[in-house]
Design a protein that fits this description.
By secondary structure, the protein is of the alpha/beta class. Helix content is about 40%, strand content about 10%. Strands 15-12-14-13-17-18-16 form a 7-stranded antiparallel sheet. The protein has a 5-stranded antiparallel sheet with strand order 5-6-10-8-9. It has a 4-stranded mixed sheet with strand order 1-2-4-3, covered by helices on one side.
Amino acid sequence: MSAETDLPALLAELRQALKGEVDGGPSRRAQYSSDASNYRIAPLAVVLPRDEDDVRAALKIAGRHQVPVTVRGGGTSCAGNAVGPGLVLDMSRSMNRIISIDPETRTAVVQPGVVLSDLQAAAAAFGLRFGPDPSTATRCTLGGMIGNNACGPHGLAYGRTADSVLGLRLLTGDGRVLELGAGRESFDQVPGLEQFVLARLETIRTEFGRFSRQISGYSLEHLLPENGRNLVAALTGTEGTCGIILEARLQLVQRSPAPALAVLGYPDMAAAADAVPGLLPHGPLALEGLDSALVESVRRSGADLPDLPAGGGWLMAEVGGATESEAVASAQAMVRDGGALDAVVLPSGPEARKLWQVRADGAGLAGRTAGGLQAWPGWEDSAVPPEHLGDYLRSLTALMEKHRLSGLAYGHFGDGCVHLRIDFPLDADGKAMRAFLFAAAELAASYGGSLSGEHGDGRARSELLGAMYSAEAIAAFAAFKALFDPQGILNPGVVVDPDPLDAALRRPQAVEVRAGDGFAFSHDAGSVTDALHRCVGVGKCRADLRAEGGFMCPSYQATRDEAESTRGRARVLQEMLNGGIIEIGWSAPEVHEVLDLCLSCKACANDCPTGIDMAMYKSEALHQTYKGRVRPLTHYTFGRLPAWLRLAGPVAPLINLAGRIPGFGRLAMRLAGADPRRALPKLPNRPFRALHQARNRPTENGPESGHPVLLWVDSFSDTLSPDVAKAALKLLTAAGCDVQLAGPGACCGLTLITTGQLTAAKAKLSRTLDLLYPHVQAGRVIVGLEPSCTAVLRSDILELLPQDPRAQAVSRATKTVAELLDSIGWTPPQVGEALLVQPHCHHHAVMGYSADLALLEKAGCDVEVSSGCCGLAGNFGMERGHYEISAKIAGDGILSRAAADPDRAVLADGFSCRTQVADLAGLPARHLVQVLADALDKPEDSRL
């Protein structure tokens, strides 16, 4: 790249020539400054091409300005393959069409930005699938898979991506568009290619293609005459350094109808690896390794994990069959030959899927070592021939111990591929990582292995290629690239003429920021910097997992914009720590820009395997920016809503009357900073605490007459939904509980927290502890009604008042209604309704919804769950500027589900969820306690 690049001229030329977005602003550059690797390279600009013409024009203009081009799909590359200093072209936004699927030839034609899971869903209609399936299948793109020669667990059965690519439409670095396949015809389109191969026959035949997972470098063995001169296979795995994929024709395979899962336990991972060669003759579809430390990490997170066989390391073998019984029988036969300490066979179903999810989330789960230290990629993808895997693992463990490093291992053991993230001290510098990687490269090469088994070399391993290839082979890489990219414009610094592996590391550039007067960041020992670097870029926030019960990330699902993903926000926050292109400090405009559309739903804190909590970071950013300063209007209106509601209570009838005056509601909402399209909430004539049920209920501890419960009626339930509190009182009494009410003033400060008024929130929570803690000391369980408020007492209070021992006690004593009723073994009345349930995001993220589902099942309800956010998210959907995205989230989620099955009654515990469906669709919704309390009034025989 020329040091004299005229950036304004480049951007102007791109904007004039392209239909898609061209953005050279600091926020967009920060979002694309990293992928799922250790590296940070801020591009000059990001291009979101609309079509092939945009791609060709962008490349031509970049070449004229001598600016490098890096192509990106889902941004899930672990080795720094998808970051670069020039233009970054994101193909996932628009170039994501499945052009055709031909069930007769079992082929598909796709654009490079197609997400693998989308292709799998489309192919499944014909009983087909794409063979390779990386764990990032829900967000990785086919272009990225071709770039890295991805494999995944089922690479064992279906091969590498290179084995499934039949044709490529390729744009070369010098602007040629080639239609390529296998055979001499494709060779003839590349002048000098035949001579290149003939001049290097000995090197290619002796150094390449030695085992299936030899992915490092270029796979030149495919060019040999005896291998069919398969140019597209050779280009697969070139990591965007030889051309830009415009279109790909892919081979599909038949889906296995009923796979079974065998889990075999061994003393440790190396012993499990020793067993692999004996299991391969059984022809498993997948054979994965799982370490006990990784499993323990999952268990500590609170995830629902099935029991595993005894052992310290496991093999997970998927076995196919024409029927379920045939698959199970084949899996049992494998177990008999496995020599395992213990084993279990699971048919296809939910228990098997839970175990596979642990494996799929490995990259994120392994982001922390057993000791809680941050772990990093770099040596996350080495591979050796399977017969050497056990010995290699023992040697690798010894090498880590020698370098005083540790990590969590897992991987595709059937192929000899090991995924391992290591606790390199990157907070200091890259010296320890560099020393280890050079030693590890020599170790892998000594076992006839490869630096990479499916992730590619990228910036992490390209400098190490000399450990496994001769000088002649290294020179061959440069000569091959030159045939397609003579100017070296495509993804420079990768494979050919590599950058140092410890250059441009992200973490060492970050300043250390410690927790101050906001959140404690206790999960990261008070290090804000470590917390923000929890995001390692696995990109699960870009996946639509609502069909599987996921809630993350609603803003990205609505916009499909990297800026609105959890990862995009994390990248901007990380950039804020080093001041490279964004000023250091929470008040940076780019920080607030990317956080604006964060709904603070907390889904990422549960759904992201790294445990990142963007809601907390947004609150901290608002706190640090506005403390001691004039705040935005909505911080005074919505942020202090409980106080306004208490003031409004005595005059509620007058406010409701005024609300019927044409234009009053819109004016009132506008003055409050709300979108005028939102309805002014109708206030109850009397809040709950003014009703006789509350006035006659004791608030002090007295003699117990049942299960001791403290019903905490939050501000929303008290002043906006008193019927919910009444139903709760009725239900808990019927369940045999001795119910007392929490005294007035017990407020969690939720609205203060979401608007970043943390000093006030802490004071309010401290007063709430004064009210609640004596009841906890007396043995009462606190029962919350509003999920978001309950979640504050379960989680936020620990981060805001970490030094107050009462906070821990109150947190432990706080339960949802369903959790309480489950703990006392109460049998609910038979409701027998068909329900569409919208769990509140905070309920899902903090408490989990399993107790509620179990209770509804006991009550005989036919339940359909609408996973994902409702879109209102407290004050978010009410504020001006958020209405459209709030409505789209609802329209794509709960409202579409309600329209598809209008006979189902809506159940939503969250006041904001009930408000959203009423405001946008006029739908009534009830709280769980209302559904159950209504059933109490039914005659016994009608409940059956």
